[in-house]
Amino acid sequence: MLEREAIQLACRRATEVDYEALQAVIAATELRIDQGLSIEVEDTAFHHAITTASRNTVLARLLNAFYEMSESRRREYFTNLDHARETLSEHKAILAA
After folding, report:
1. What angle do CA 56, 62, 64 make, to 5 degrees?
2. Which residues contact 50 (CB under 8 A, 6 or more apart)?
3. What is the reported pLDDT for 59?
4. In whole angstroms, what is the distance from residue 56 CA to residue 60 CA?
5. How many Cβ atoms are within 10 Å of 53's Cβ, its own excluded?
6. What is the distance between the alpha carbons of residues 62 and 39, in angstroms, rounded to a whole number?
7. Tens of pLDDT, residues 42-96
8. Whole-angstrom Cα distance, residue 57 to residue 88?
9. Are 79 and 27 in contact (CB under 8 A)?
10. Residue (of 2, 9, 5, 50) closest to 26 by Cα position
11. Per-residue model confidence as pLDDT tens digits over 9-56
12. Does an H or E element contain 15, and which?
C-alpha cells in the first residue's frame, strides 16, 4: 500500500534525472540476471529510486525501514532467477507507467 502511494507520487513528481536513475537500475538488473546473479541490491536500489522520485521524505523513511528489515528475506528470494525475472518485468511496467 505504501509502495503504491510512492509509485503514484513518483509518477507525478519524477524528474528526468529520476527516470535516468530508474533506467540505470533496470539495466543493472538485466545484467545481473544475464550473469545468473541475485538482484537483491538492484531491487533495493529500484525501490529507493522510486521513493526518492516521490519527493515524500516521510514515506521514503518508512519504506526504507521496511527494506532494511526484509533484506535477508529478499536476498534469499532473489537467488531464484525466476523471481528475479518476474521482478524485473514488474519494475519495467512501473517505469512505463
Report:
1. 95
2. 3, 6, 7, 10, 22, 94
3. 93
4. 6
5. 23
6. 22
7. 999 999 999 999 999 999 999 999 999 999 999 999 999 999 999 999 999 999 9
8. 25
9. no
10. 50
11. 999 999 999 999 999 999 999 999 999 999 999 999 999 999 999 999
12. none
Q: How many CB atoms are closer than 10 A to CB 38?
A: 20
DSSP category for residue 35: T
Per-residue model confidence (pLDDT) at position 58? 95
Take residue 73 and report the three cell numbers written for it.
Answer: 528475506
Which residues, in sequence order, are CB contacts of 56 under 8 Å at separation 6+? 5, 6, 9
Cα 81 to Cα 49: distance, rounded to the nearest angstrom? 22
**Cell triple for 44:** 533495493
Residues 6+ apart with CB under 8 A from 52: 18, 21, 60
Concatenated DSSP letters for 56-76? -HHHHHHHHHHHHHTHHHHHH
Q: What is the DSSP letter of 39?
A: -
